[in-house]
Specification:
The complex is a heterodimer of chains A (112) and B (114). Chain A has 112 residues and is an all-beta fold. Chain A contains no helices and eleven strands. Chain A is 0% helix and 54% strand. In chain A, 35% of the residues are buried. In chain B, strands 2, 4, 5, 6, 9, 10 and 11 form a seven-stranded mixed beta sheet that branches. A four-stranded antiparallel beta sheet of chain B has the order 1-3-8-7, with no helix packed on it. In chain B, a hairpin with a 2-residue loop joins strand 5 and strand 6. Classes of the chains: A mainly beta (112), B mainly beta (114). Chains A and B meet through strand 4, strand 5, strand 9 and strand 10 of A and strand 4, strand 5, strand 9 and strand 10 of B.
Chain lengths: 112, 114
Protein backbone atom coordinates (compact mmCIF):
# COMPACT_ATOMS: atom_id res chain seq x y z
CA UNK A 1 0.00 0.00 0.00
CA UNK A 2 1.34 3.42 -0.96
CA UNK A 3 1.98 5.79 1.91
CA UNK A 4 -0.12 8.56 0.32
CA UNK A 5 -2.69 7.92 -2.39
CA UNK A 6 -4.26 10.54 -4.59
CA UNK A 7 -6.42 10.13 -7.68
CA UNK A 8 -4.34 11.56 -10.54
CA UNK A 9 -7.41 12.59 -12.52
CA UNK A 10 -7.62 14.37 -14.83
CA UNK A 11 -10.63 16.17 -13.38
CA UNK A 12 -12.58 18.69 -15.48
CA UNK A 13 -15.34 20.85 -14.03
CA UNK A 14 -17.23 23.91 -15.30
CA UNK A 15 -16.36 27.35 -14.00
CA UNK A 16 -18.17 28.19 -10.78
CA UNK A 17 -18.49 24.57 -9.63
CA UNK A 18 -17.32 23.29 -6.27
CA UNK A 19 -14.26 21.08 -6.60
CA UNK A 20 -13.40 18.32 -4.17
CA UNK A 21 -9.89 16.87 -4.12
CA UNK A 22 -8.89 14.05 -1.79
CA UNK A 23 -6.01 12.03 -0.45
CA UNK A 24 -5.82 8.96 1.72
CA UNK A 25 -2.81 7.86 3.68
CA UNK A 26 -1.64 4.83 5.58
CA UNK A 27 0.82 6.25 8.13
CA UNK A 28 -1.16 7.18 11.23
CA UNK A 29 1.82 9.18 12.51
CA UNK A 30 1.20 11.97 9.99
CA UNK A 31 0.07 15.10 11.82
CA UNK A 32 0.76 17.98 9.45
CA UNK A 33 -1.12 18.22 6.19
CA UNK A 34 -0.60 20.53 3.27
CA UNK A 35 -2.07 21.25 -0.11
CA UNK A 36 0.14 22.58 -2.86
CA UNK A 37 -0.81 23.89 -6.29
CA UNK A 38 1.59 23.24 -9.13
CA UNK A 39 1.34 24.84 -12.54
CA UNK A 40 2.99 23.10 -15.45
CA UNK A 41 6.79 23.00 -15.13
CA UNK A 42 6.73 25.19 -12.01
CA UNK A 43 7.45 24.57 -8.34
CA UNK A 44 4.73 23.59 -5.87
CA UNK A 45 3.03 26.60 -4.28
CA UNK A 46 1.73 26.20 -0.74
CA UNK A 47 -2.05 26.74 -0.56
CA UNK A 48 -3.21 25.39 2.76
CA UNK A 49 -1.59 24.04 5.90
CA UNK A 50 -3.40 22.22 8.71
CA UNK A 51 -2.35 20.47 11.85
CA UNK A 52 -4.18 17.36 13.04
CA UNK A 53 -7.93 16.94 12.43
CA UNK A 54 -10.42 19.64 11.59
CA UNK A 55 -11.24 22.25 8.99
CA UNK A 56 -9.42 25.33 7.81
CA UNK A 57 -10.80 27.94 5.46
CA UNK A 58 -8.94 30.52 3.39
CA UNK A 59 -11.03 32.45 0.91
CA UNK A 60 -12.46 30.02 -1.64
CA UNK A 61 -10.38 27.13 -0.28
CA UNK A 62 -11.28 24.79 2.59
CA UNK A 63 -9.04 22.01 3.85
CA UNK A 64 -10.43 19.15 5.90
CA UNK A 65 -8.54 16.48 7.80
CA UNK A 66 -10.12 13.34 9.20
CA UNK A 67 -7.36 11.48 10.99
CA UNK A 68 -9.68 8.68 12.11
CA UNK A 69 -10.30 7.82 8.45
CA UNK A 70 -6.81 8.85 7.28
CA UNK A 71 -8.49 11.08 4.72
CA UNK A 72 -7.88 14.69 3.75
CA UNK A 73 -9.79 16.94 1.38
CA UNK A 74 -9.45 20.26 -0.35
CA UNK A 75 -12.58 22.07 -1.50
CA UNK A 76 -12.50 24.91 -3.97
CA UNK A 77 -15.63 27.05 -4.16
CA UNK A 78 -16.60 29.18 -7.14
CA UNK A 79 -13.85 27.60 -9.21
CA UNK A 80 -12.07 29.81 -11.76
CA UNK A 81 -10.11 28.93 -14.91
CA UNK A 82 -7.00 30.20 -13.08
CA UNK A 83 -7.48 27.33 -10.62
CA UNK A 84 -6.53 24.92 -13.40
CA UNK A 85 -3.38 23.22 -12.14
CA UNK A 86 -2.15 20.06 -10.48
CA UNK A 87 -3.00 19.86 -6.79
CA UNK A 88 -0.65 17.95 -4.53
CA UNK A 89 -1.36 16.80 -1.05
CA UNK A 90 1.64 16.50 1.27
CA UNK A 91 2.07 15.45 4.85
CA UNK A 92 4.64 15.05 7.56
CA UNK A 93 4.98 13.39 10.92
CA UNK A 94 6.55 16.25 12.76
CA UNK A 95 7.30 19.92 12.37
CA UNK A 96 10.58 21.73 12.02
CA UNK A 97 13.15 19.85 10.03
CA UNK A 98 10.85 17.21 8.64
CA UNK A 99 10.47 15.78 5.14
CA UNK A 100 7.19 15.98 3.26
CA UNK A 101 5.58 12.92 1.72
CA UNK A 102 3.59 13.82 -1.37
CA UNK A 103 0.68 12.32 -3.23
CA UNK A 104 0.94 11.94 -6.98
CA UNK A 105 -1.18 15.04 -7.62
CA UNK A 106 -4.59 15.55 -9.25
CA UNK A 107 -4.68 17.46 -12.52
CA UNK A 108 -7.64 19.85 -12.47
CA UNK A 109 -9.07 21.79 -15.40
CA UNK A 110 -11.76 24.44 -14.93
CA UNK A 111 -13.72 24.89 -18.12
CA UNK A 112 -14.87 28.50 -18.82
CA UNK B 1 7.19 38.82 -1.40
CA UNK B 2 10.38 36.83 -0.67
CA UNK B 3 10.77 33.62 -2.63
CA UNK B 4 13.14 30.72 -3.12
CA UNK B 5 15.19 31.05 -6.29
CA UNK B 6 17.00 28.35 -8.23
CA UNK B 7 19.57 28.37 -11.01
CA UNK B 8 19.85 27.29 -13.70
CA UNK B 9 16.29 26.74 -14.81
CA UNK B 10 17.43 24.01 -17.20
CA UNK B 11 20.67 22.05 -17.18
CA UNK B 12 21.66 19.59 -19.88
CA UNK B 13 24.61 17.32 -19.20
CA UNK B 14 26.26 14.18 -20.46
CA UNK B 15 26.06 10.96 -18.46
CA UNK B 16 28.97 10.72 -16.04
CA UNK B 17 29.43 14.47 -15.72
CA UNK B 18 29.17 16.39 -12.47
CA UNK B 19 26.43 18.98 -12.01
CA UNK B 20 25.78 21.55 -9.32
CA UNK B 21 22.29 22.88 -8.83
CA UNK B 22 22.00 26.13 -6.94
CA UNK B 23 19.34 27.51 -4.65
CA UNK B 24 18.93 30.71 -2.68
CA UNK B 25 16.44 30.06 0.13
CA UNK B 26 14.39 32.84 1.67
CA UNK B 27 16.76 34.86 3.81
CA UNK B 28 15.46 34.20 7.33
CA UNK B 29 14.72 30.53 6.78
CA UNK B 30 16.61 27.93 8.77
CA UNK B 31 15.74 24.55 7.25
CA UNK B 32 16.51 23.57 3.68
CA UNK B 33 15.48 20.68 1.51
CA UNK B 34 15.96 19.16 -1.90
CA UNK B 35 13.22 17.22 -3.63
CA UNK B 36 13.02 15.79 -7.10
CA UNK B 37 10.16 15.03 -9.46
CA UNK B 38 10.69 12.66 -12.34
CA UNK B 39 8.38 13.55 -15.23
CA UNK B 40 4.89 12.26 -14.54
CA UNK B 41 5.75 11.05 -11.05
CA UNK B 42 5.32 12.41 -7.56
CA UNK B 43 7.59 14.82 -5.75
CA UNK B 44 10.14 12.82 -3.72
CA UNK B 45 12.22 13.90 -0.77
CA UNK B 46 16.00 13.76 -1.20
CA UNK B 47 17.61 15.49 1.77
CA UNK B 48 17.06 17.98 4.57
CA UNK B 49 19.70 20.30 5.96
CA UNK B 50 19.92 22.35 9.11
CA UNK B 51 22.74 24.08 10.93
CA UNK B 52 25.24 23.10 8.23
CA UNK B 53 24.49 19.42 8.56
CA UNK B 54 22.36 16.86 6.79
CA UNK B 55 19.41 16.06 9.04
CA UNK B 56 17.83 13.31 7.01
CA UNK B 57 18.34 11.75 3.61
CA UNK B 58 16.31 9.34 1.52
CA UNK B 59 17.45 6.12 -0.15
CA UNK B 60 17.74 8.07 -3.39
CA UNK B 61 20.40 10.32 -1.86
CA UNK B 62 23.35 7.98 -2.29
CA UNK B 63 27.08 8.70 -2.38
CA UNK B 64 26.74 10.42 -5.75
CA UNK B 65 24.83 13.25 -4.12
CA UNK B 66 26.07 15.92 -1.76
CA UNK B 67 24.74 19.21 -0.41
CA UNK B 68 26.49 22.28 0.81
CA UNK B 69 25.75 25.74 2.12
CA UNK B 70 28.95 27.43 0.96
CA UNK B 71 27.98 30.88 2.22
CA UNK B 72 25.14 32.58 4.06
CA UNK B 73 22.77 32.55 1.12
CA UNK B 74 23.36 29.66 -1.29
CA UNK B 75 22.38 26.02 -0.88
CA UNK B 76 23.71 23.61 -3.49
CA UNK B 77 23.05 20.06 -4.62
CA UNK B 78 25.90 18.29 -6.37
CA UNK B 79 25.56 15.11 -8.38
CA UNK B 80 29.04 13.70 -8.90
CA UNK B 81 28.53 11.36 -11.83
CA UNK B 82 25.13 11.79 -13.42
CA UNK B 83 23.09 8.87 -14.68
CA UNK B 84 20.24 8.85 -17.18
CA UNK B 85 17.79 8.20 -14.36
CA UNK B 86 18.84 11.43 -12.63
CA UNK B 87 16.88 13.34 -15.26
CA UNK B 88 14.15 15.13 -13.31
CA UNK B 89 13.00 18.45 -11.90
CA UNK B 90 14.92 19.29 -8.76
CA UNK B 91 13.21 21.54 -6.25
CA UNK B 92 14.76 23.38 -3.37
CA UNK B 93 12.55 24.27 -0.41
CA UNK B 94 12.96 26.09 2.86
CA UNK B 95 11.08 26.48 6.13
CA UNK B 96 11.12 29.59 8.30
CA UNK B 97 9.81 28.35 11.54
CA UNK B 98 10.79 25.36 13.64
CA UNK B 99 7.28 25.18 15.10
CA UNK B 100 5.55 24.25 11.87
CA UNK B 101 6.41 22.61 8.60
CA UNK B 102 5.31 25.05 5.92
CA UNK B 103 7.83 24.45 3.18
CA UNK B 104 8.22 27.00 0.42
CA UNK B 105 9.46 25.70 -2.89
CA UNK B 106 11.56 27.24 -5.61
CA UNK B 107 10.66 27.06 -9.30
CA UNK B 108 12.94 24.07 -9.89
CA UNK B 109 15.84 23.13 -12.12
CA UNK B 110 15.12 20.76 -14.96
CA UNK B 111 18.06 18.38 -15.27
CA UNK B 112 18.40 16.45 -18.51
CA UNK B 113 21.08 13.75 -18.64
CA UNK B 114 21.95 12.55 -22.14
Amino acid sequence: QKEVEQDPGPLSVPEGAIVSLNCTYSNSAFQYFMWYRQYSRKGPELLMYTYSSGNKEDGRFTAQVDKSSKYISLFIRDSQPSDSATYLCAMSVDFGNEKLTFGTGTRLTIIP
Amino acid sequence: EPEVTQTPSHQVTQMGQEVILRCVPISNHLYFYWYRQILGQKVEFLVSFYNNEISEKSEIFDDQFSVERPDGSNFTLKIRSTKLEDSAMYFCASTPDPTNNEQFFGPGTRLTVL
